[in-house]
Amino acid sequence: MGKMRNRESNGSRDGSRGTRSEPSRDSPAASRVPPAPPPGPSGPRQAPPAPLNLSLLRTFLAVHRTGSYTAAAPLLGLSQPTVTTQIRALERHLGRQLFERQSRGVASTPFADELADRVAGPIDALSAVTDRGRLDGDDAAAPVHLAGPADFLSSCALRVLAPLVARGVRLRVTTGLSDDLLEGLRTGRHDLVVSARRPRGRTLESVPLADEEFVLVASPAWAERIGPDRVAAEGPSALCGVPLVTYAEDLPIARRYWRHVFGRRLTGQAALTMPDLRGVLTAVAAGAGVTVLPSYLCRAELASGALVPLLSPEDPPINTAYLVQRPGTADNPHVGLVRDHLLSESRTW
Description:
By secondary structure, the chain is of the alpha/beta class.
């Protein structure tokens, strides 16, 4: 019996069966420190990096799309110094340079282009929820800011968009030249731009909208004075002495027509310039001279005889118009509605 009592006593340090007492704070066991984890192949283990701040990524995306700290600032509701500070913080976090300063704005590095491709979709999707501040869709959507050439918007776009306006879509239309309008798109002034050329770079998404076929036309009186089929036989020399009516002083449309159809450079000067092709059409139909117009604009005048084609080349010059959308407009559903409607109706132009 004594041996059994001794065995029970040895099995429990505090004298109770099946339990162990906690060591006192002054005991050697209490002062033991757990061993450090073994070092990795290149030294002690490093703490995992802190997660990226979404606001920094949003600022980065705005700068990448606009190509400028200054242009990105009002889009974000920040000051330009704050944008600069946030970009520098992101560069420190990533350990990579994102932008290189230029005389006008900044240029993105290849790493920045790759980063933008990865984060653009998720950031835009998140902004569609957080920036809208509502999920039920009861509030009226913001106006859609559409920009493009005055003649094209007036003759084609507004005609097919009228039913959307009647259904509650609000439009704000701006006209101008492609370069100026694309710059306004980058800085957030426009949501959609109809451009006569495809934008350069990767920051703006564009899709072909319509092909413009150009026609050399004159009034019936001038066509009779020039003579039927004379332009086809003699080329541009048949037009010597005939006033030229154009869109601008540098003869942009006519110069392209001359090069494509006649294979030579246009060297004459304009008798009349009008920065709206509708005005050019009006002047030529009234007998001012000859011009080159897109067929969509003068189709009715050609059908009625108010204008006469001077040449019908087998390969007429064609220019593609592009519909360009500003990135980050997913929070306004009416932007997509206007875009899709323009693309679907462009077949009728």
